[in-house]
UniProtKB/TrEMBL annotation:
Keywords: 4Fe-4S, Cytoplasm, Iron, Iron-sulfur, Metal-binding, S-adenosyl-L-methionine, Transferase, tRNA processing. It catalyses: N(6)-dimethylallyladenosine(37) in tRNA + (sulfur carrier)-SH + AH2 + 2 S-adenosyl-L-methionine = 2-methylsulfanyl-N(6)-dimethylallyladenosine(37) in tRNA + (sulfur carrier)-H + 5'-deoxyadenosine + L-methionine + A + S-adenosyl-L-homocysteine + 2 H(+). This is tRNA-2-methylthio-N(6)-dimethylallyladenosine synthase. [4Fe-4S] cluster 2 binds at residues 168, 172, 175. The lineage of its organism: Bacteria, Pseudomonadati, Planctomycetota, Candidatus Brocadiia, Candidatus Brocadiales. GO terms for cellular component: cytosol. Its main location: cytoplasm. It comes from the Bacteria.
Length: 452
């Protein structure tokens, strides 16, 4: 049915797609992969819903707020769908996986609900809706994501995200990820290398390896493969300048991996390793599998081996039962660790998780006050740390025009600082030296010294 010439002809009329992504980097990459597939099918990407034949949202369910935003966007499409019933509205990703059929009940004008492991079949699912004229639900949990990437489709020619593992087996008590993204599945080194080589051939200089729990990369693969092995192999590839990876889990980050990172010149000197809390009592209830002392010692070990290492963290405030004393322990951890930057979240109960069985007993105004307190503290620390760089030369991989001033260039150091500087010519994709003369908590400003 789907292949009838009559139908293919009809489908040629419906070839524009509007795509909006919420949530993490993995979602952004999945969006890229989906758009790559749709482009291969002849779709043109538009940035206005009114010009789209297909409207897709790649969603996040890590906090309630992220879901509310999507439902509100979907709600606002009701009139458009009434006027143009042929337009297909689809919900992809974590919220699709989690809410499934319930999305059709709440938003009957939605045509497609496509879970976290089914996006590689998007073109076919869209055709199915067109041919049958009915809702399509695709949330199969056993399906393994395997997308042959269109390397030419990515927002920036010099940088690319590469998924190396999907899912998470940790089941931290507050987290919905293991339920919506499923168990950990690692890609083979051969498969990843092939993709990275194709990216390099297409002009890519920096790759960021993605995994919900990247330190356990290799689990389930043949042989005792680790993240260290993968990084070593990628470090040997000619043409690549930098390798980054996220997100690290303190309990799965072995000292061996840290030793390996310290030896590999292309691997960035930066870890995003969320602590979530500084209180042992809360960490235990979060099922994080480490204590605050363990976390401190791990970072101390890493900083001894990698002297310029910077660390970023995530914290959740207002987890059930978090007292002022628990919170002060988080404040102390933040003061002591001198993070480069931190993401702070108010606890949001997620139905189905272990923590959702506990009473969400920290009032919202206290959550908000703790959130602001940590943000302000981190802002001071980031500024103090950045001030230490004034007068120094840093090596920058140039990413593009600065967002705040398109006449200047912007890039990042190996330690993940954002650097903005003037340049007489376009140096995008190049490694350059910049002397820093001014800083804020978020940005270093400098003067171009020389470009190798
Ligand atoms: N409530 C608030 N924040 C959460 N995170 C994960 N689950 C929740 C939740 N239920 C935060 C963690 C994680 C980041 C991606 O989101 O800090 O590291
Ligand atoms: Fe969620 Fe914990 Fe897995 Fe991270 S490690 S995705 S916080 S369950």
């Amino acid at each position: 049915m789907v292949n009838s010439p009559d139908f293919i002809y009809k489908d040629q009329q419906y070839k524009t797609v509007f795509f909006e992504t919420f949530g993490c980097q993995m979602n952004k990459l999945d969006a890229e992969l989906s758009l790559g597939l749709l482009q291969e099918e002849g779709y043109r990407i538009v940035d206005n819903v009114n010009e789209a034949d297909v409207i897709l949202f790649n969603t996040c369910s890590v906090r309630q707020h992220a879901e509310d935003k999507v439902y509100s966007h979907l709600g606002s499409l009701k009139t458009l769908k009434k006027r143009h019933p042929d337009v297909i509205v689809g919900v992809l990703g974590c919220m699709a996986q989690k809410d499934g059929e319930a999305i059709f009940k709440r938003m009957p004008h939605v045509d497609l609900v496509c879970g976290t492991r089914m996006f590689s079949r998007l073109p076919e699912l869209i055709l199915k809706i067109r041919s049958h004229g009915s809702h399509v639900l695709a949330i199969d949990e056993d399906h393994i994501v395997n997308v042959k990437r269109a390397v030419t489709y990515r927002p920036n020619i010099h940088q690319a995200f590469v998924t190396v593992m999907r899912g998470c087996d940790n089941f931290c008590s507050y987290c919905i990820v293991p339920y919506v993204r499923g168990r950990e599945v690692s890609r083979t080194i051969t498969d990843i290398k092939e993709e990275v080589q194709a990216l390099i051939a297409n002009g890519c200089k920096e790759i960021t390896l993605l995994g919900q729990n990247i330190n356990s990369y290799g689990k389930g693969l043949q042989g005792a493969i680790t993240l260290g092995d993968l990084l070593s192999e990628l470090n040997d590839l000619g043409g690549l300048d930098r390798i980054k990876f996220v997100t690290s889990h303190p309990a799965d980050m072995s000292r061996d991996i840290i030793r390996t990172i310290s030896r590999l010149e292309k691997v960035c000197e930066h870890l995003h390793m969320p602590a979530q809390s500084g209180s042992d009592q809360i960490l235990k209830r979060m099922r994080r599998g480490y204590t605050s002392t363990y976390y401190r010692e791990l970072i101390q070990f890493a900083k001894e081996l990698i002297p310029h290492l910077t660390v970023a963290s995530d914290f959740i405030v207002g987890f059930p039962g978090e007292t002022e004393k628990d919170f002060q322990e988080t404040v102390k951890l933040m003061e002591d660790m001198r993070f480069q930057n931190c993401f702070i979240f108010k606890y949001s109960p997620r139905t189905g998780t272990k923590a959702a069985e506990l009473e969400d007993d920290v009032p919202d105004e206290i959550k908000r006050a703790r959130n602001i307190r940590l943000l302000e503290l981190q802002k001071c620390i980031s500024l103090e740390e950045n001030k230490k760089i004034i007068g120094k030369n840093v090596q920058v991989l140039v990413e593009g025009a600065s967002k705040s001033d398109p006449n200047r260039l912007s890039g990042r150091t190996k330690q993940n600082h954002i650097v903005v500087f003037n340049s007489p010519r376009n140096l995008v994709g190049r490694l350059v030296n910049v002397m820093i003369y001014e800083v804020t908590d978020l940005t270093l400003y400098g003067e171009l010294k020389n470009s190798p």
